[in-house]
Amino acid sequence: MPNQKTVSAYLSSHLSGVDLAPALRASLRGRDVEESINTVAMAASASDNSLPPSQLALIVRYLLENESGTHVRDRGLTIDELAAVCEMAASIITSPDSAFGVKVSDSSWSMAHRIAYQQFPDEEESSYVPRSLAVYRQIAPSLVEEGGFDLERRYQDAYGLTINDAWNIGYALTQWCLANPGTSFSSASLEQQLGLADIDQDRYGKFLATQACAYDVYRSMLSTPTEGQSHFEPYNLNPFRKFPILILPDGNHMLPIPAYLLRRITHGLYYDLIELDRSGYIGLIGRTFKEYIGRLLSELALDSVSQSDDGVWVVSNDNTAVLIECITRPFGAMSRSTGNRAHLHADLARRAGVVDSVKRLQDIRHPTGNNSRLVEALQGKRTVGVVVALEDFYLANGPFIRGIVDEELSNQGRTAMGAEIQMTHVGGLEAACALAVTSGESLAGLIYRKSNQHEYDCLEMDAYARHLTLLEDHSEANNLTPTILTNAASKFL
Description:
This protein is α/β, with parallel strands linked by helices.
């Protein structure tokens, strides 16, 4: 087991261009898997959050890779040893391509892209949980009749329990495992341990069937994103995202990283539902997200809010109008895992994706008489377009992603975006709206100011909002949490 000195040597090797993944695997080989995962659970439940979930998940991944259950093993990892190997995991996750002996263009940007999609989701629990509850539990069911895709009925037909059952069991189990880290459980014991009213053993069993997998199933899901690019393996989607509960060799279950189950029963519902009916669900969630943005914008006091004939939100004051185009998912798994330019090009340019949204904003910034409501709303006003995504869209407004979008626009005979079109994850728009409400500023004016200041025009929207709270001493706005998230948290958490 590497001590601190050994780890430092590994890090020095890393900086010299040595792939640390084999060394990390070797340091974990032979360890008692269940004992080690128990230690991971203790660390994941610690109040100081000193070992991030992304690092802990990579450690569990490597522990399970070669687990056969047929030979005597050494003792499990201690907390100190876990911290040491997590340092190695952190180095792997933040490795430039050159550390793997691979030289590609945009190496620093692709590295930053990979790191963002590894680490940022683990830092956003306070927003993605209530947001998912608002989207899936409050808004989507109200639009079922219009959309035709009954997500509640389809989920129950497929899995034998309601979305409400899944939430109640999952949330209670998350809290129980935080209080009892590393303790195993079964469908029978959960009935006693959680004591939820009207939830019997059968539904606990069905819940575990949707959230748990055995060691061999977990290993079968491990794959490199692209053939011949094994160095991207540590960045690939960890099976824990889909199956956060492990089935132990004795048939009991363990939840190594409770935060992953919380994300799975909120944001992760997307993946369950899209597998049931892709086209029906995508249609419903598109309408749901537009409705969510509308409710978010309804909190604004100093802006006029309307919607164009084709569903674009218009936020305006006396001299400025902001056009908001909503998309659900900007990238596929390959793009998130690799930061590879070719994959990013393909995802950004796909039908109804980011590039198409930018083109729409370019066109509607100069409306014709065919859209009378939009012509009236924009009359005599300076305009800014915003592409906002429901799914993770990290570093969206930086030069790397903007440059790829501009290349695709050029390929189609279009002009580059310019600062008059901004891109953001929904969290960025939430932060800007919260700042506008608490600081007494128009959202339209705030976004225009960002786009019109060269030093800020490529900054992420949420980073800009946080910057303003410090720069302009908006002490009352430091939370940057809109009411729609506060209300969802109050209702469900």
